[in-house]
Write a structure and sequence with these properties.
It is built from ten helices and nine strands. The chain is of the alpha+beta class. The structure holds 3-thiaglutaryl-CoA and flavin-adenine dinucleotide (FAD).
């Protein structure tokens, strides 16, 4: 079955005309990214996902459309856009594939953002322009083999040695690690404080083996980070943060982008299902004429519309610097599960064809299983909301 000959027939759906709440810059950013996805991602993505290969050549294109750190300052080669635009860009990228959005999320929100927010001016000038232009690829190491949902338990350590630090430990499930030039890594110091640092490829004792066998996010490369007495110069320590709020602050930025991104995947599934329902004839009429199919489609667009309104309000609060971590958690949790349920319903509407790579459904569905888990699992986000509304902490 050829996937390369397919053309991307996606059409945007905006049932409540949320677009009228956006400004010209937002719409322009969306159109530019959508065109790029149609031209560069859609024609190749099924093939790369099938082969479980990361299309690394897209890093440069992502940089050119401003997908790396869109809301970070232009001074460092970034976009200087608002948070709404950042979200819209993530939505368009994930409409193409969650793995492509992951490339941009990790680079922009988990590597560039901590260097910008917690780094020195020297570190910003040294790394940010190269990361923004895609000349350098970064990854983010927080999760460990025995500490996923509970990063506070991390075992990675740094110990002072003269002017340097010695890093030991291991990180697991790290997007882009095998191809990254730098890794922003979190480890505890001798006083037990979580510190952030920039580990560079080629440092002695540092390796990043690939994790194979994923059925999800197959066009994204994932690996480990292994540190065996890696000497980290003090210039590579992020000076302006201590404690778990460092990595968790980056997660808020990335989770915000994922809340937007997931609805991109949902829109692609809905769009494909709607079209298929009008083209596929059974019992002498289009399957879209059956009430049960209409129920599925009507519920999909209802959930998408609710999510679009949630995102617009979240984007507005983020622009005003008022979006709380718990509000972001609610949006990430709701929108990812919404997208996954829409992917499952869309798969049913496509019948047997829904399991093939002629349609994007199964790829989105498999991707969304990862999106439901990374950046905080579905249940962890529920407990964050629970803590916020009751004032009672289920984690302690
Ligand atoms: P807790 O005591 O609640 O908090 C410690 C400090 O951090 C602050 N804080 C946050 N700050 C900013 N943003 C957030 N989202 C924050 N959450 C907490 C908090 O105020 C406190 O500050 P301070 O000043 O008092 O020290 O921490 P805890 O250990 O009880 O943990 C709470 C919990 C479970 C919610 C947290 O550990 C958590 O979110 N766990 C989930 C782990 C997770 O999301 N890992 C993601 C790894 S990265 C990833 O998946 C990338 S995938 C990328 C891709 O490919 O797209
Ligand atoms: P666990 O924490 O072991 O959780 C297993 C189950 O137990 C889950 O259902 C969870 O909800 C549940 N659970 C745990 N604690 C509780 C509780 N207190 N109450 C109720 N239920 C609970 N990490 C990075 O640092 N950088 C990356 O770039 C990165 N990229 C990733 C890419 C992929 C493809 C994947 C799959 C993961 C990636 N991750 C990354 C790791 C990701 O963040 C973790 O997988 C996630 O945080 C969950 O950790 P875990 O897999 O260890 O699951």
């Amino acid at each position: 079955m050829s996937s390369k000959s397919k053309t991307d027939r996606f059409q945007y759906h905006d049932y409540y005309n949320v677009d009228e709440l956006l400004n010209e810059d937002h719409i322009m950013a969306r159109e530019a990214v959508r065109d790029w996805v149609k031209k560069e991602v859609s024609p190749i993505i099924e093939d790369y996902a099938n082969r479980s290969v990361c299309p690394t050549h897209l890093f440069k294109g992502l940089a050119e459309i401003g997908a790396f750190g869109p809301s970070l300052p232009e001074k460092y080669g970034c976009g200087g856009m608002d948070e709404m635009s950042y979200g819209i860009i993530m939505q368009e990228l994930e409409r193409g594939d969650s793995g492509i959005r992951s490339m941009a999320s990790v680079q922009g929100s988990l590597v560039m953002y901590p260097i910008y927010k917690y780094g020195s001016e020297e570190q910003r000038m040294k790394y940010l322009p190269k990361l923004a232009s895609g000349d350098m690829i970064g990854c983010f190491g927080l999760t460990e083999p025995d500490h996923g949902s509970n990063p506070a338990g991390m075992l990675s350590t740094i110990k002072k040695d003269g002017d340097d630090y010695i890093l030991n430990g291991a990180k697991m499930w790290i997007t882009n690690s095998p191809i990254a030039d730098i890794a922003v890594v979190w480890a505890r110091d001798e006083a037990g404080k979580v510190r952030g640092m920039i580990v560079e490829k080629g440092m002695k004792g540092f390796s990043a083996p690939e994790i194979h066998g994923k059925w999800s996010l197959r066009a994204s490369i994932t690996g480990e980070l292994v540190f065996e007495d890696v000497r980290i110069p003090k210039e590579n320590i992020l000076p302006n943060v201590e404690g778990l709020k460092g990595p968790l602050g980056c997660l808020s930025k990335a989770r915000y982008g994922i809340a937007w991104g997931a609805i991109g995947a949902a829109l692609d599934c809905y769009d494909s299902a709607l079209r298929y329902s009008k083209e596929r004839i059974q019992f002498g009429k289009p399957i879209g004429q059956f009430q049960l199919t209409q129920k599925k489609l009507a519920e999909m667009i209802t959930e998408i519309t609710k999510a679009q309104l949630l995102l617009w309000k979240l984007g507005k609060m983020a622009n005003e610097g008022k979006a709380t971590a718990a509000q972001i958690s609610m949006a990430k949790r709701n929108n990812v599960m919404t997208a996954l349920e829409i992917a499952r319903e869309a798969r049913q509407i496509h019948g047997g064809m829904g399991i093939t790579n002629e349609y994007p459904i199964m790829r989105h569905m498999m991707n969304l299983e990862t999106v439901l888990t990374y950046e905080g699992t579905h249940d962890i986000h529920l407990l964050i909301t629970g803590m916020d509304i009751t004032g009672l902490n289920a984690f302690k």
